[in-house]
Amino acid sequence: MMRVLAALSGGVDSAVAAARVRDAGHDVTAVHLALSSNPQTFRSGARGCCSLEDSRDARRVADVLGLPYYVWDLAEQFRAEVVDDFVSEYAAGRTPNPCLRCNERIKFAAVLDRAVGLGFDAVCTGHYAQILDGPDGPELHRAVDPDKDQSYVLAVLDRNQIARSLFPLGDSPKAEVRREAAARGILVADKPDSHDICFIADGDTRAFLASRLGERPGHVVDRDGVVLGDHDGAYAFTVGQRKGLGLTVATHDRQPRYVLSIEPTSNVVTVGPREALAVNEIVAERPRWCGTRVGDGEVFAVQFRAHGETVSATVHVDSELLRATLDDPASGVAPGQALVLYDGTRVRGSATITSAR
Amino acid sequence: MAYLDHAATTPMLPAAMAALTKELGEVGNPSSLHAAGRRARRAVEESREAIAAAFGARPSEVVFTAGGTEADNLAVKGLYWSRQKDRPRPRILASSVEHHAVLDPVRWLVEYQGAEVVWLEVDTLGRVDPLQVHEEIARDPGSVALVTVMWANNEVGTVQPVADCAAAAAAFGVPIHSDAVQIAGHLPLDFDASGLDAVTLSGHKLGGPVGVGALLLGRSATPAPLIHGGGQERDVRSGTLDTPSIAGFAAAATEAIDTRAPREATIAALRDELIAGVIEQVPDARLNGDPRLDEAHRLPGNAHLSFPGCEGDSLLMLLDARGVHCSTGSACSAGVAEPSHVLLAMGSSPAEARSSLRFSLGHTSTRADVDELVAVIGPVVERARAARASTASQV
Fold first, then answer.
1. DSSP assignment, residue A292?
2. Predicted TM-score of the model (pTM)
């Protein structure tokens, strides 16, 4: 029997995860993480946590499961480590993934460390991923349900974090989890899935960034530097973006234009044809290994987005940087995104993309 | 199980349960004119007389409410509004350590009604200075709508010099209210002798039911009503009178006062053992509030301690897992423990404020409760310190 701290968001997945761990005979205590210092009263859109309604749902799940329940206030750390980082990354022309950051700094760091300090053996969440025993210890693997697989946002966890994590839903399709929630009498069984950024209440990332960064007007140019339009802030763009470019000059080939690069210092957004997005070489920094470090020159399936396709690549690692040479060109690779290395279903590690060409 | 959170709510006294359940089996609206109504009215009026007798008030000075929070709101907002009739009187003098039931109405009046608040400072023991009350009124007596100073603080247990504050207000004819929820039934409360114009009482803090309270209201005080619809209570409070809760409240108040001195002496002795026992196990634990433990200075059941290097909510969780119930102070609606505004007002840093726990004893407390806490507090504090150290290195 282990002493397990179950993080309850107020949603279905974390509820069923906690129930499964309890049923396996572990001593489970529930916590709801308060990540916003000014929580909304009600859920809005597809946000998964952080409203008072969600914290009540989490409390009721704990009641139904018979678990002691507490709220941990991580609003200050979440603001400093996740929200401020999200804003400064966009300001620097990159496209961050705040869920990875939250897993790295909050859920499997601040929360896990505090839990271990308080005498817990492990933290349990409703993430869809699997931890399987391997010859060198526990390994992080994709979930069996490809639509729900969240291994990408967990690829920042190191061996010690993986060893103290439980993901009881990794072997189940979502539909089965919902059925199980209903059968267990969990009141949130039909609550919608969350998929938006939790700290942007209305889902309008551009407006959120504008409120934090202000208007910073600049030019949208083509690869020759010809001005095609104006923008209110380069932070509102992502490499690979096609819509909302605000071009006022028609392109000579009548083909759509895509964001190729964002230059924060000069505040210039460069656009070009789709084929100009194709990249073969990716450089990424701050590699983190979900177990042993990978060998130089090994081939992996690499993924750039939470639910993106994978591409086969040869990976070279030096002290601080990871370079991936793709077998086939990929497009829409934005600095700031995580490059995640897969070996079959196994997650080997991740690094933050700095450039691609 | 050791229940050490009597200041949050205390078990109902048997006499209160008997009175409450007897009335639950009866029918009759106290405002009805027939025999059933008269029977209910009689129960309400006998309860009113019992509460008046218990707290040194006249029966006509007892206004029943649905709890202490409503009574505080009625006093603060009602007196504020009624004091605007002849001329604008925007200023409210309020202690900076009030319960949210007073703080929030004051803040609301500032935000929506043009009020101006003077937060009365407290010293490191949590006491207001009656001289500041005098000086603030003297600066412009006509502009003060009311003064509100709680009788004793719910978190750190400090008893306020309410009689001196009342004298300062009376010298200028300014009405003064006191939230006495924590002391009613526990310390002597003589409304007539207090010099106060309005005093808040709550049923469930003295062994009565939850959801009933009263505002003791001097006959010259005429707050504007918060709730309109019949004027059942002296035309300042409307709504059908809750006969069962009122009867339970009165029975509890009578018993609490009849047995007060020996009971509170026993509680205070246990409290002293608790403080000594905890400090023996955790030598750097610090007692917050007034170190003079007599009832002129500190609530008999209150022990409020800081544990340097710990998070209060970690301590609470670890103690809860070991069957010991205590409090970190107030929590927001999501259940997040906030650093106490009381400790901040007393000069504590936010980290110090977050490292604190309140243990509060009551009529069912025993030596075994204290022993349970003392047996586990040492390892619990060590564990909470380790947890804080492991997260502090992260952030």
1. S
2. 0.89
